[in-house]
Amino acid sequence: MSDVDDRATGRRTLIVIGLVLATALALGFVYATRRVLVWAVVAAFFAVALKPLVDRLQRRFVRRRALATLLVFLAAFVLLTILAALILVPLFGELGRFADRAPELLREARAGRGPVGQLLERTGARRYVSDHSGQLHDLGGRLRQPAVGVLRGVVESVAGLVTVIVLAYLMVLEAPRITRGLLAAAGDGQGERLRRVGREVSRTVTGYLTGNLLISVICGALTYAVLALTGVPFAAVIALLVAVADLIPLVGATLGAVIAAGAGFLHSPTAGVVVLVFFVVYQQLENHLLQPLILSRAVQLNPLTVLVSLLLAAELAGLLGALLAIPAAGIVQTLLREYGPRRLRPAPPAGPAARSGRPDGPTD
């Protein structure tokens, strides 16, 4: 009897050791491939958002899945290109005019004349630059050294963007085949439930993207109004930049505020202060009012869940966590509703018999 107990204990020990080793290997694999996994998660996020458009186009106009997917992705690319052109063309034009005037501005700044020179004189920056010119020259030389690292980061970002686009395209293209395989593996009993879960997940992601776009449009419109009222030039271009930056979780609103406030201070100190105060107030309203209310309606979550999900995910996973927090919360809610305990599921609406206190069906 003791030999049997010893063998059982040995087997349990080996099983525990095997589970620990398997967990360690899985965590090591996730860490080693974390960049590719992040690309795959982002691609799946956009694939789920674009799949309903491809399905609708395929049902109504185009029979071939590959052609419908290609048309939707081309339309998205064209829209992004137009948006980039609306921002970059005026911006490059201004940069060109600034480059033409740069030598004159530099001469005025050195002499303490002109708006830049007067600003440097008031702040004492011109005297500081004159007294520490050697140190600033050494600093410029050191800043040129990490240029290779910056170039490598740009190349990796471009490669990541291309990878995400290709992965999202293939996910949308193969979505019907993947769905059929999952339904066949689940069997007839779970097929309808899986379809329902898939529809809810797609609705959640699409609703999140729609709500986020609406918030960015509101931010851009209010920014344009403030810049136009304060007389800041190129208010439309700056407002468009702010709206695009506002799409980025965590840092987007701050980046937009820096852009707009910088343009305001370049125009006049009064305009800069007004724009800065506006963004301080607006960011509080957006973070604690607009985002919870709009996104809670878009993904059908209560505002408290939206706010807590954003805060926790941003703290745990940074930018990616903030991007995926609300869709993930909606997906978890859908899974709990479908597969969780019955008390988590909403009760069916009461019929006439239930309201009258009588059971359904014939009575004696």
Automatic annotation (TrEMBL):
Coarse class of the protein's main subcellular location? membrane
The organism's place on the tree of life at top rank: Bacteria
Q: Which UniProt keywords apply?
A: Cell membrane, Membrane, Transmembrane, Transmembrane helix, Transport
Q: Could you tell me which InterPro entries the record lists for this protein?
A: AI-2E-like
Spans through the membrane = 12-31, 37-54, 66-92, 150-172, 205-227, 233-258, 265-285, 305-336
Point to the regions of Low complexity compositional bias: 352-364
Q: According to its UniProt record, which protein family does this protein belong to?
A: Belongs to the autoinducer-2 exporter (AI-2E) (TC 2.A.86) family.
Record-given protein name? AI-2E family transporter
